[in-house]
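Changelog note: in this version the structure field was regenerated for every chain. One regenerated record is shown below for reference.
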Amino acid sequence: MSGELIRLAELSMAYDGETVLDNINLNIKDREFLTLLGPSGCGKTTTLRIIGGFEAPTAGDVYFDGVRINNLPPYKRRVNTVFQKYALFPHLNVYENVAFGLRISKVREAEIARRVGESLELVGLAGYDRRRVHQLSGGQQQRVAIARAVVNRPQVLLLDEPLGALDLKLRKEMQTELKAIQQQVGITFVYVTHDQEEALTMSDTVVVMNKGIIMQVGTPMDIYNEPINAFVADFIGESNIITGVMHSDYHVEFASAQWECVDTGFDPHQNVDVVIRPEDIRLTNPENAPISGVVKSVTFKGVHYESKIEQGDIEWTVHSTAAPVPGTRVGISLTPEDLHIMDKPEEFRNPAAASRESDVLAEEEGTEGGVW
């Protein structure tokens, strides 16, 4: 990846006084596959629309290659968009759908034929040029939409949940194909989804959003293994989130037991959330374990069993390759590296200044914006 291509600086957006984006800062690199990930209403699509020029921010600036583009209309930006509803022209065949933008730009016919052919081959639709749109499957229509976008040679492709209408098997196939297309054409992809697996599978960088705020920016591995707060931990995969007390560096108490951990920098006796991934928990003999609980249920998930273990008022979720017997008591064993200690939500500050260089919490209080 090259250097910075797009920069969002102190960007805010409100509709009728309702906050949608709350002072976000984000750098997007050239040739990067960056995913905006979060629940419905978190502001990710609004962010995409602002980059594309379809919305003007209430405050803040959008820079492209170092140039402020707030007032630049969409058709003058080196950006194309693929929406969940592909908006193909039903009266045109595949070739004419892909060629449409080139004809508007008055490109010569020979050049149109060459570029349309290259684009259809890129998305695996060579030979489909004379097909009508209604003769294509959902996955094929999505490929046509991508071909129509990349044929204009944009520097950035914006994708707003383009796989949402596909079935699970086809969606997984298209995840791999989209990443391959991005690497082959060598342009920046900015992708919007609420699907965690999509984000982790395809992205170079994941931006987790909630209530108009950027929670964390990082690689898929960083986001999954080192979530910055309980929201990120719970949204990216399954987690056990348990209230605890950080007595001192490397020493936390939760679930009626004292534990060693690898975390530092908390105040003495600070209330914290302890996040433990289900796959990091080992079930052992209850006589030799720090804590134990009763197996309430076991569900086969294909590659593992998911067990619910009841320990007083705590219900643990455990993923393991062996199935414990419901009704029996089992021990729970954890290593210091299995524990992720984080501030509790009420102590969390708006990390609006999060960027590639730093996703440390900002000092000032963030506004609790509404959901759009």
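Spot check on this record: The chain has two domains: 4-225, 239-344. The mean pLDDT is 88.
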